[in-house]
Design goal:
With about 70 residues, the protein is mainly alpha-helical. The protein has one domain. The protein has three helices and no strands. α1 packs antiparallel against α2 and α1 packs across α3. The two termini are about 25 Å apart.
C-alpha cells in the first residue's frame, strides 16, 4: 500500500469509469432502441448482450489505449 500514490488511484478510477461506460452504454442503447421500436424484448436482449460481449472482447486493447492516454 505504500507504493500507491494519489496519481495512480486517480488514473485507475478514471480508466475504470471510462471502460464501464464504453461497455454498458452502447449495449443499453441498442437494447432499448430495439425494444422501444419493435416491442420485442427477446431480440433487443439478444442484440444488447451480443454487443456487450463483443465490446468485452476488446477490453484489453481499450484499457491499454486509455491508460497510455492518461500517461502522457
Amino acid at each position: 500500500m505504500e507504493n500507491v500514490t494519489p496519481d495512480i488511484m486517480i488514473k485507475m478510477v478514471s480508466v475504470s469509469v471510462i471502460l464501464a461506460l464504453l461497455f454498458t452504454v452502447p449495449a443499453l442503447g441498442i437494447f432499448l432502441g430495439i425494444y422501444w421500436h419493435t416491442d420485442n424484448l427477446v431480440i433487443g436482449a439478444i442484440m444488447g448482450f451480443s454487443t456487450h460481449f463483443v465490446t468485452l472482447g476488446f477490453a484489453h486493447p481499450l484499457s491499454r489505449s486509455i491508460s497510455t492516454f492518461f500517461d502522457s
